Amino acid sequence: MTPVDSQAKIFVRNLRLYAYHGVMPQERCVGGDYLVTVEVTADIRKAAETDRVEDTISYASLVDIIKDEMKQPSALIEHVAARIANSVVTRHHLAKEVEVEIVKVNPPMGADCEGAGVRIHLINDKTI
User: CA-CA distance, 89 to 36, in Å (whole number)?
Assistant: First the structure.
């Protein structure tokens, strides 16, 4: 049975990683905790019928992409988020849209907050 609305959100929420990003040299030396969320809009019609992981976007694959991109130190998490989004659409032809949120858990900015970060939204125009 095919779902009436075949668009789905496949996601990994708040994957906690230790990484070495930041404008300040000590941030790239000492590192810090990050929370990464990736949400992908995809057509799941075929997967809903076949029950095969090959017909969808595996969240395990998303975790692998996030880990790979977070390993590469960058000054800006905007750069890391864009790399993650681009990797998702490059590796997964079903990805119509990708939203990536990266939160630096304890940013060194002298403010009491739960975190600071960036959220980007990429539309894969090759699926339109």
Answer: 17
Dist. CA 9–CA 32, nearest whole Å: 29
Q: How far is CA 37 from the centre of its chain?
A: 5
Pull the structure tokens for residue 9.
């959100």
Over its C-alpha atoms, the chain yields an Rg (Å, rounded) of 16
Reading the chain (128 residues) residue by residue, the pLDDT tens digits are 555 567 899 999 999 999 999 998 888 889 999 999 999 999 999 999 999 999 999 999 999 999 999 999 999 999 999 999 999 999 999 999 999 999 999 887 788 888 999 999 999 987 65
- The first and second tokens of residue 112, run together, are 């009491």
Is the distance from CB of 21 to CB of 104 less than 8 angstroms? Answer: yes
Q: What distance in Å separates the CA atoms of residue 22 and residue 76, rounded to the nearest whole number?
A: 6
Strand order in the sheet with 7-19: 7-19, 32-43, 95-104, 116-123
State pTM to two decimals: 0.91
111-117 long-range CB contacts below 8 Å, 24 or more apart?
Answer: 115/35, 117/35, 117/77
CA–CA gap between residue 50 and residue 8 (Å, rounded): 16
